[in-house]
Design a protein that fits this description.
three-stranded antiparallel β-sheet; 177 residues; 37% strand; 2 helices; four-stranded antiparallel β-sheet
Amino acid sequence: MCEATGASRVVIFDHTRRRDDGGADGTKTPANRVHNDYTEWSGPQRVRDLFGEEEARRLGDVPFVQVNVWRPIRGPVKRSPLAVLDASSLDPDDLIGTDMVYPGRTGEIYHLAFNPAQRWLYFPEMEREEAIVIKGYDSRTDGRARFTPHTAFDDPNTRADDPPRESIEVRTLAFFA
């Protein structure tokens, strides 16, 4: 990830397996509501949660991004594919902060209001060897894309006998010291 992003340090802090057949084996189902995993508040808060106040202060003004790497466990993905918003079509006024309450902490994500100017992309029939890198938060405010809303969706081309989607996403923080 350092090579792909130019980061000096990358920390993997979480992962989630998903299946679209109910998650009977303890996996989660695909997230089928448009969202962005972090907000202006929760991006920096996640650094404090993971590293503690002292380390977060030491990191201070070090630019960082939160990045998810999403890929199929089995392919091709024919059910519940992942769609991502073209970040250049994101109007910041469309972002709606929403609390996420977990045992021991409260986080915040963005949900997204509909806007006909939004442009969406998806990658049909992704294979196991393919991955999508999703920027969930960027601390830099210099005009670059800072958020990438995304969602699973019901593809109208899905057949009833298509196998369930199985995917994994790994969450990272990348620092640019």
